[in-house]
Design goal:
The protein has 259 residues and is an alpha/beta fold. Helix content is 39%, strand content 24%. It contains 11 helices and 10 strands. Strands 6-7-8-3-9-10 form a 6-stranded mixed beta sheet, sandwiched between helices. Helix 5 crosses helix 7 and helix 7 packs parallel to helix 8. The longest helix has 22 residues. The two termini are 37 Å apart. It binds adenosine-5'-diphosphate and magnesium ion (MG). The site of magnesium ion has 3 residues, from helix 1.
C-alpha cells in the first residue's frame, strides 16, 4: 500500500543573514503517525516548526499540507487548514482562566467580524457553549479534576497541568497535525512519563491525527514515535525507527555523546 502523506516538505531552507538555520530539509509526515525530531540545541528543529506553521517565510523550498501547497501562507491560514502547535516556551496567558486559554485555540475566535458578532450573538453564544463543552471533554481525558473547574487562572497550576492546557488548546480546533516543541521541558521524570501517557491517549482517541514531536528525552521518543529524524547543523543526518537511529554511529557521536 502506498503511504498516505499528510505533510510533504521539500528542500526547505531558512537563512538568517549568513547562518543557514535550516538547509534543504526534505521530509514527509504520514497521516496518523508520530514523527520524532531529535538533535542538539541550535540544529534547526524549532525553525522547522516556525517555517511549516507560517511563522517564518522560507528562504526556499516547498511545503505541501494535505495535498495543498502552503509555502508562504500566513500562520492563521495554516492553522485553519488543520495544523496546531505548542511552543518550546509556554505561551499561556497566566492570569487568564484555563477555559480562556483553551478557547484561544478555537477557530471560532477568528471567523467573526464586528457585524457578525453584533447580529449573530445567539449563534456566537451557542459556539462559545460548544467550545466550552469540547474543552471540558478534552481536558477530562487528561485530568478530570482540571476539567472540573476551568475558571481557575492558569498561573496557579503545576507544570504538568499547564502543559495539558496547552495541548488541549492545540487540540480544540481538531487539527490533522499536532506539533509539540519540547513538551517535557521543565518537568520531572514522573511528570514526563504522565505526559507520554497523555500523548498516547490523544493518539488512541484520534487515529488520523499525525504528531511531530521535538524532544530531548530519549525514553519519550522510544515510547511514542513511529519514525525519527535526526538533525544537526540544519540538516537531517539520518532517519528511521527509533531503534535504527539510536544505533547510528553518527547519531551517537553528534547527539547521544558516543554512548
Ligand atoms: P533548535 O530548536 O534545534 O534548538 P533553532 O531552530 O531554534 O534550533 O535554531 C537554529 C539556529 O537558527 C540557531 O543557530 C539559532 O540561533 C538560529 N535562529 C533561530 N531563529 C532565529 C531568528 N529569528 N533570528 C536569527 N537566528 C535565528
Ligand atoms: Mg528549539
Amino acid at each position: 500500500m502506498s503511504k498516505d502523506i499528510l505533510l510533504a516538505v521539500t528542500k526547505l531552507t531558512k537563512r538568517f543573514g549568513g547562518l543557514a538555520a535550516l538547509s534543504e530539509l526534505t521530509i514527509d509526515v504520514e497521516r496518523g503517525k508520530v514523527l520524532g525530531l531529535i538533535g542538539p540545541n541550535g540544529s534547526g528543529k524549532t525553525t522547522f516548526f516556525n517555517l511549516i506553521t507560517g511563522l517564518y517565510e522560507p528562504t526556499s523550498g516547498a511545503v505541501v499540507f494535505d495535498n495543498e501547497a502552503i509555502t508562504g501562507m500566513s500562520a492563521q491560514d495554516v492553522h485553519r487548514r488543520g495544523m496546531s502547535r505548542t511552543f518550546q516556551r509556554s505561551r499561556l496567558l497566566l492570569p487568564l482562566s484555563i477555559f480562556d486559554n483553551i478557547a484561544l485555540g478555537h477557530h471560532m475566535r477568528q471567523s467573526h467580524g464586528l457585524w457578525a458578532n453584533l447580529f449573530a450573538r445567539k449563534r456566537m453564544l451557542g459556539e462559545v457553549k460548544q467550545c466550552c463543552e469540547e474543552a471540558r471533554e478534552l481536558l477530562a481525558v487528561f485530568d478530570p479534576d482540571l476539567a472540573g473547574d476551568m475558571s481557575r487562572p492558569v498561573e496557579g497550576l503545576p507544570m504538568i497541568s499547564r502543559r495539558r492546557v496547552e495541548i488541549c488548546r492545540a487540540l480544540v480546533s481538531r487539527p490533522k497535525l499536532l506539533l509539540l516543541d519540547e513538551p517535557s521541558a521543565g518537568m520531572t521524570h514522573d511528570e514526563t512519563m504522565r505526559l507520554v501517557d497523555d500523548i498516547l491517549l490523544v493518539k488512541e482517541r484520534s487515529s488520523d491525527l499525525a504528531v511531530v514531536i521535538i524532544e530531548h528525552e530519549m525514553s519519550v521518543m522510544e515510547r511514542i514515535t513511529d519514525h525519527c529524524a535526526v538533525m544537526n547543523f540544519g540538516t537531517m543526518i539520518c532517519e528511521g525507527t527509533y531503534q535504527n537511529v539510536a544505533q547510528d554511529p553518527q547519531v551517537q557521536e553528534a547527539y547521544l555523546g558516543g554512548e
